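Our consortium's second objective concerns turning raw sequence data into structural hypotheses that experimental partners can test. To show how far this objective has progressed, the report includes one record in full. It was chosen at random from the queue rather than selected for favorable results. The single chain below, 222 residues long, was entered without modification.
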Amino acid sequence: IFFIIISFLLGLSISFLLSYRFHCIERVLFSFVVGNAITIWATFLLACLKGSLSIDIILISITIYIFLSVMLFRVSKESVKAVFTDLKNKSVIIWHEDKLTISFFMFILLYLTIMNLYGVFRIDEVGNLYAFHTVWADYPFHTSVITAFVYRADLSFPLNYPQFLQIEMHYPFLMDFYSAVLMKGGLDLRCSLIIPNILFQLSFFGLFFFLAYKLTGLKKVG
């Protein structure tokens, strides 16, 4: 969880370097996506240099991202306290003056949470796993990639498929590595899948909403 928070802070520090005028919610979503995209790539490269994904690599990564975030906030002349005070104040304003946008995002978040909890490895009272048919068909591949990152001791690039002997992987693996980092950090397999699902899906819907809104000036179009 700390890895996710620090990644967000890195993205937030980058957002304040840009001249683009963000909506408050848009800045939060942008910061999450950009920060995590950078940190997961950097963590993967560090893990490749060591030859495995380990707790010390994750801790070293977090330390580097904290340092970078502090430096970028100093460059942007924004303190972390001032940034969060500003976000809090703007959130209060949005809550009172823009209930349409807030209602939309609350609905999307509720929808995504229910769909993920219901359809991604739902556990019944005797321990059986249930899933939507797309999850049931697709996730055995993803879980094998994730657990290979977590447990293998010979991580190097280019990667090989864990399912096929000595076959070079051409599948985009970065989200699976993200889940592997979360799992290595202490989350179970299900949470390491569901948490990124919800956060990145919410970011996708949200940024798509703001793209339409910025292009047309109409929130209903968004």
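The partners drew two points from this record. The chain has a mean pLDDT of 85. DSSP finds eight helices and two strands in the chain. Both points have been shared with the crystallography group to help prioritize constructs.
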